[in-house]
Design goal:
The protein is an alpha+beta fold and 56 residues long. It is built from two helices and two strands; from the N terminus they run ββαα. The chain has a domain of 31 residues.
Length: 56
């Protein structure tokens, strides 16, 4: 599923440049979605929370 450009893509009109993304859940497997949400969380969460709750 990682290569399916119709399943995940940036929101048009420049919002995608700020991290806004469309996900078509019916086209994604659980691992991809988990990895995407974990990566997004790690980008915005306090590093002490990432260290506490995320096992990388």
């Amino acid at each position: 599923m990682y290569g399916d450009k119709t399943a995940v893509f940036p929101v048009p009109n420049k919002w995608g440049k700020h991290g806004w993304t469309h996900f078509y859940l019916n086209k994604l497997d659980d691992k991809f979605l988990n990895d995407a949400l974990t990566a997004a969380y790690c980008e915005v969460a306090l590093q002490r929370l990432v260290a506490k709750y995320i096992q990388l």
